[in-house]
Amino acid sequence: MSASLPWREGVIGMTLEQQDTEPTEPAQGIPPEVAEFATCAAISVDEMAGQAQSAANFLKALAHEGRLMILCHLSSGEKSVTELELLLASRQAAVSQQLARLRLEGMVACRRDGKAIYYSLADEKVRRAIDLFYDMFCRPLIDAKFA
Predict the structure, then answer these.
(1) What pLDDT is recorded for position 47?
(2) In whole angstroms, what is the distance from residue 26 CA to residue 35 CA?
(3) What is the pTM of this model?
(4) DSSP string, 29-92
(5) Is 114 left (phi over 0), alpha (psi -120 to 50) or beta?
(6) How far is CA 107 from CA 26, 70, 98, 119, in A?
């Protein structure tokens, strides 16, 4: 396969860290339409399938408006379950159910202080995703209101 795709040779043998940090010249013969995707050639199909499964699981955990709203509120800092109930105008049982799923997925962390339970984001990927969703879906509404 690499004989038919000589541009792959510029990526093979490099660690992912090297690809991300070291400026490299594109390999000769790389078609311009695939240049930005050349790093995909650095991992095997099995590795890519595993990462695709992880990404799909991550997205499934986010694919609920209640969970997204909880994560959005937590992106500004730690909140108690009671604070989340008020912010979401939702019942404690519904909030707790969604928090349990987010905790199971490793997306939020919790701590107890007396009778109160506080939640915060536990994964930087979650913060990055919520920031991206905010930029894509919420910022345009805010910009339109103040334009």
Answers:
(1) 93
(2) 7
(3) 0.71
(4) T--GGGGGGGGGGGS-HHHHHHHHHHHHHHHHHH-SHHHHHHHHHHTTS-EEHHHHHHHHT--H
(5) left
(6) 37, 11, 11, 10
